[in-house]
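I'll show an entry:

:::
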Amino acid sequence: MAKFELKLPKMGESVAEATITNWLKKVGDPIEADEAVLEIATDKVDSEVPSEVSGVLSEILFNVDDVVKVGQTIAYIEVSGGVVVEAPKEDAPASVATIEKTVESAQQAVATPQDFSNSEKFFSPLVKNIAKEEGVSVAELEAINGSGKDGRVTKDDILKFVENRKTAKVETPAVVIKPQPIENTQPTTDNKKAPVSVNGGDEIVEMDRMRKLISGYMVASVQTSAHVQSFIEVDVTNIVKWRDKVKTAFEKREGEKLTFTPIFMEAVAKALKDFPGMNISVDGDYIIKRKNINLGMAAALPNGNLIVPVIKNADQLNIVGMAKAVNDLGNRAKAGKLKPDDTQGGTYTVTNVGTFGSVFGTPIINQPQVGILALGAIRKVPAVIETPEGDFIGIRQKMFLSHSYDHRVVDGALGGSFVKRVAEYLEAFDVNRDY
């Protein structure tokens, strides 16, 4: 019998780690090649990790909710016959150190169960993941003096704390950790008890994992960026007429439905090329000018949650390519088949609040981006139409564009000019254009 190392596979260029959410197999279970062994989560995307070989699961190295880096061994599978496997090297110090660190972390977790939701202080999901991985307790985390806004603990703060603790260059804050009984798996702190229905008729439901992530991201974004909004009304009559004229032939030729979204995405991508100052991100006191234009497309899921798949190099796509990308990501998002890399690398985000009848909105920026555009519902409204013969009242198709931007790095002139340029592209749409 030989052992095969089941490693966390690479899931995209920008994905470095994942959280184990569920083991589908237990030690001793037989496994077929390509059969799913466990479920993982990266940010908002859930995926399965299949086995590359057939055998028996002999050892599990990580527990549910553990954060694992890409390339790390997460389990061993016993295989028989002449199968070529990657056997663990007994003389490799790095492998031994990794396993010892895993065991030590597991022992600490058993001795002192960690639940960062018990803290009254806000910590970002990234900070909590680092704390959990490095065995930093809730009390230690609360004792760190954060350098972020309102004393918030940043990624650099906790990494510095961990490094100082390892090298013993500074003393760690003195903390008192109250022992908790191992058999008590549910936190019982008074300030975090599950709420109780006053009248007995209310239903109390805990947030699922994705909703907790979204909640953390939204709060962190509001605390990080100085949100400012600009609104502009756009006449999209020509776009409505053009789509009505070509949508049947478009679907017949391309096999794709033509919605308004790819048309709006095309205009946004053009405007970002005109105003590259909106295609940036912020890292501390530094501004990162993004080379590629990758448009995030906020999508509502059937379970009520939200996800933002990304159209890579959107400025290089024509209307057909944009329609295919929008439909593909939208369909896979609803089916729960997005890959981790599908939600990474966005440089600007668009959300279609008009889908639900909203006229306009004030969307929250998707960090670390600096802007997000909300598309309002298209409505028939009376409007003044200017002609050489004079002005008259007519029925036009109009909508509002709502632009939220980060006032730390984007002033009103840039934020307002950008959304105005998007509107100009939409109003100048050629009703006779080809696709």
User: Anything to note?
Assistant: The mean pLDDT is 83. The CA atoms of residues 246 and 258 lie 9 Å apart.
